[in-house]
């Protein structure tokens, strides 16, 4: 039974470990054609959710499907869903080629494809070496090769940049964007907003097993827009006009203003309507990392006190 559209759908998913609630009625949809970031602090439920989607863990209630099917119903799963969950899952006594070849044979994938993905992820030089001697970064690349093996429509990557050097991080970022551009579904978990800001088109933020926010990255940036920097030779007149419109306008040196409480298009419209020239109009956003930390602060497993910098 094949997966057709690759959409990942999670509906009212609940899961507990003893008295600890891992997932609390979690619901979301991941669509093809974009990189969807799955963000949350350590312990928020990201890995648990992915394991349930892949049939590696069982939920107490709720539904987790890919393309309208449970993963367990797919006969050759590597051809439908590629996943990187645990870089240490390969047998340490096997070579990288042997590990991938075994996976390929069990899913009806030819030997030639094994060589292709080995080249693609940059481990051709160590393909015949035992996995036990690999660094974490090389294990990550091997795990990504396994995910690519069946050329699937859907991908789940759990913290894929772990252990990668800067070149490797750039490579996996470009790979995920390329897969999404081909119309595939890409769900990637991380606890770092800074990384997702460079990678994701859409973001799901969870904490303590609940969905805190779902948004496009562009909309998230707009939501946390802090103020607008304006430069005008008639800055004082413009400040008076904006104040009457309910905005807060602070005069700065160099015929400039810092404006809050009103967005850039409205500032431009008011200025044009009163024939006030504007030479610069720049929205300035608060740090997405700061916004993310604020949203998830109550969900973090451990909170350190603020540093006392003197």
From TrEMBL:
<dbReference type="InterPro" id="IPR003439">
    <property type="entry name" value="ABC_transporter-like_ATP-bd"/>
</dbReference>
<keyword id="KW-0813">Transport</keyword>
<keyword id="KW-0547">Nucleotide-binding</keyword>
<feature type="domain" description="ABC transporter">
    <location>
        <begin position="8"/>
        <end position="233"/>
    </location>
</feature>
<dbReference type="GO" id="GO:0005524">
    <property type="term" value="F:ATP binding"/>
</dbReference>
<comment type="similarity">
    <text>Belongs to the ABC transporter superfamily.</text>
</comment>
<dbReference type="GO" id="GO:0016887">
    <property type="term" value="F:ATP hydrolysis activity"/>
</dbReference>
<dbReference type="InterPro" id="IPR017871">
    <property type="entry name" value="ABC_transporter-like_CS"/>
</dbReference>
<dbReference type="InterPro" id="IPR003593">
    <property type="entry name" value="AAA+_ATPase"/>
</dbReference>
<keyword id="KW-0067">ATP-binding</keyword>
<dbReference type="Pfam" id="PF00005">
    <property type="entry name" value="ABC_tran"/>
</dbReference>
<dbReference type="InterPro" id="IPR027417">
    <property type="entry name" value="P-loop_NTPase"/>
</dbReference>
<protein>
    <submittedName>
        <fullName>Export ABC transporter ATP-binding protein</fullName>
    </submittedName>
</protein>
């Amino acid at each position: 039974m094949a997966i057709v559209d690759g959409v990942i759908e999670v509906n009212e998913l609940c899961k507990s470990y003893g008295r600890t609630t891992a997932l609390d009625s979690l619901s979301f949809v991941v669509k093809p054609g974009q990189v969807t970031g799955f963000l949350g602090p350590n312990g928020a439920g990201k890995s648990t959710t992915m394991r349930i989607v892949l049939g590696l863990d069982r939920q107490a209630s709720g539904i987790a499907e890919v393309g309208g099917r449970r993963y367990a119903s797919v006969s050759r799963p590597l051809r439908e869903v590629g996943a990187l969950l645990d870089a240490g899952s390969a047998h340490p006594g096997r070579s990288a080629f042997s590990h991938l070849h075994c996976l390929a044979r069990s899913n009806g994938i030819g030997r030639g494809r094994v060589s292709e993905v080995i080249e693609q992820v940059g481990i051709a030089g160590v393909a015949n070496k035992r996995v036990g001697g690999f660094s974490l970064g090389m294990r990550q690349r091997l795990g990504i090769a396994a995910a690519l093996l069946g050329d699937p429509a859907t991908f789940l990557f759990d913290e894929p940049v772990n252990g990668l050097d800067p070149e490797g991080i750039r490579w996996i970022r470009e790979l995920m964007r390329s897969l999404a551009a081909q119309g595939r579904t890409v769900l990637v978990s991380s606890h770092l907003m800074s990384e997702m800001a460079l990678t994701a088109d859409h973001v799901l933020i969870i904490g303590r097993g609940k969905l805190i926010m779902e948004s496009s990255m562009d909309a998230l940036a707009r939501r946390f827009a802090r103020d607008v920097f304006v430069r005008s030779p008639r800055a004082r007149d413009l400040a008076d006009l904006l104040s009457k419109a309910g905005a807060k306008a602070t005069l700065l040196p160099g015929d400039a203003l810092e404006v809050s409480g009103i967005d850039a298009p409205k500032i431009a419209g008011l200025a044009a309507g009163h024939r006030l020239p504007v030479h610069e109009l720049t929205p300035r956003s608060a740090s997405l990392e700061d916004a993310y930390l604020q949203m998830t602060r109550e969900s973090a497993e451990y909170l350190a006190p603020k540093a006392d910098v003197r």
